Amino acid sequence: MADNLCIGVDVGGTNLRFGVFRGAECLRCVRREVDLRQRCAAASDAEAAREIVLTALGEGIHELLPDFPEVARVGLAFPGFVDHDGVLLKSPNIPQLENFALQRELGERLGLRVVAENDANAAAYGEFWEERQVHPELQDLLYVGLGTGVGGGWVHHCRPWRGAHGAAMEIGHLIVVPGGRRCGCGNQGCLEQYASARGVQASYVEATGTAPEPAVIAQMARDGHAEARAAFALAGQCLGQALAHVLKVADIGLLRVGGGLSAAWDCFAEDFLARLDQDLIPALRGSVEVKRGNNDDLAGMRGAALLANDDPRRP
């Protein structure tokens, strides 16, 4: 089964990525600049928002199918709370989508078997697969993805740990600044309001009143711009604070930090690692290996494709 062709789809904050995989090997991938959050916000109602999502996903998948007609399954990495039946219970960053039978509806539209998974779980599994090529004895890995938001995934005993309701490891919604910025989940002060690309931008806006792109802020931080450096320092400190709590609960030995904002690792790593070490209990200090994730954009797609082919929970 692992050698069957499968399409892996990774839904990002402002883009969609589609890849054809034979096992873990990516044969072809395409990227579409589509902001589902923005498009769904303009939808007339929830049904229209669902149609927007299904159409955008279907168009990308159909672009690949003519050259790979033997594809039998699709693995879909989607941001939000995805239950064991592939139902998107809620997506904090796309609030129009609630109790959306994403797996079933997309499968019916495509005429293919679809496995829907939380995007961070899929990326965690993709990163786990890569680590296992070097360390085949590896059983557990904690992943945090810093993108438009912040996602988290825990591969435990070689499988993504989803929890009872598909909402496990929602690291981005740990509160790090009580009473802080309002989050799409309804709470205030969540990690993703400070340690995501949007969070870094928000910190810079608060300090300067201007809103350059996060990549521009990163370059300004490298050039010594005080407000840019402060925005990334806050991101690193909040991330270290949150992940120290996760590690104190789960005691995981390997942590990978990925996502688009990890390209600015040099801008926040020092503050992140210092706060992580400060907030860990003595028994864990120095025992957690921290790595920057693979920056090739494949982890989410690869993880989704692998899970679609070998997940025992799904048909």
UniProtKB/TrEMBL annotation:
Domain of life where this protein originates: Bacteria
EC number: 2.7.1.2
Keywords attached to this entry: Kinase, Transferase
SUPFAM superfamilies per UniProt: Actin-like ATPase domain (SSF53067)
A single MF term (Gene Ontology): glucokinase activity
InterPro entries with a match to the protein in the record: ATPase_NBD, ROK
A Pfam short name: ROK
Gene3D superfamilies in alphabetical order: 3.30.420.40
Record-stated family: Belongs to the ROK (NagC/XylR) family.
Annotated protein name in UniProt: Glucokinase
